[in-house]
């Protein structure tokens, strides 16, 4: 739920700042996933950032207010930025243009620095007032004690001393009231300053923890890369130092090798035959017939008892 407040630092009874605002204009504020961004009128004045539905509502209804002295301003992209107090309020805002977003972020940063300076100034002022009113109160108490001492002294007119007591008591009471008011203001300013310091300390702790986590991740990544590089270097050294070895011959490679060997031996035999001078009878044949395999005979030289069938068998 958004924090709604009709009052502010300038006037607890009205939502309208009396003077000129440091910056004002339309911004889009994120509501929820159903509605999305809604157009709202924002006003930054005296360290307070307030927003309204329309400009006409500034006189009677303020939708939300956030003090700037302890806020965190984060720029998300060219148009979006976030304003958060680190506790209960976080506003996701969107400007119409990048220039408008820069203008708002710059004004909010200046207002934040100014609010912190004003808080320190308030503490200094409260300290001076406490010193001043404390001295006055001590003086009034001293005068009252003097009257009491005079009343107890013999020879003094008791009625005269008693007549002075009421006025001194009134003075002491007034100065005591002023001292109490100043002390309460100092306590309030000190409490605000302590809250601011505590929130800033938590933010710095989160930032420091985030930086440590990132550093640990980077160190782990560097170590992993160094191990991979070392492993690659060792592999390269091992391959460089070992002699080259031919890969083992597989079954297919063996078959191809034997075929090539047999074809080479056949070619060698043919070459030997050519060298010995045994030329083939006819070059049109697909194979070579050597002289030793030829049959040289005629029909007249055969005996009469040999028939043609025996000649076929003889072949």
Automatic annotation (TrEMBL):
Gene Ontology annotations of biological process type: lipid transport
Domain named PH: residues: 20-113
GO molecular function: sterol binding
UniProt keyword terms in alphabetical order: Lipid transport, Lipid-binding, Transport
Record family assignment: Belongs to the OSBP family.
Entries under PANTHER family matching the protein: OXYSTEROL-BINDING PROTEIN 1 (PTHR10972:SF205), OXYSTEROL-BINDING PROTEIN-RELATED (PTHR10972)
GO CC aspect terms: cytosol; perinuclear endoplasmic reticulum; plasma membrane
Protein name in the entry: PH domain-containing protein
Organism: Darwinula stevensoni
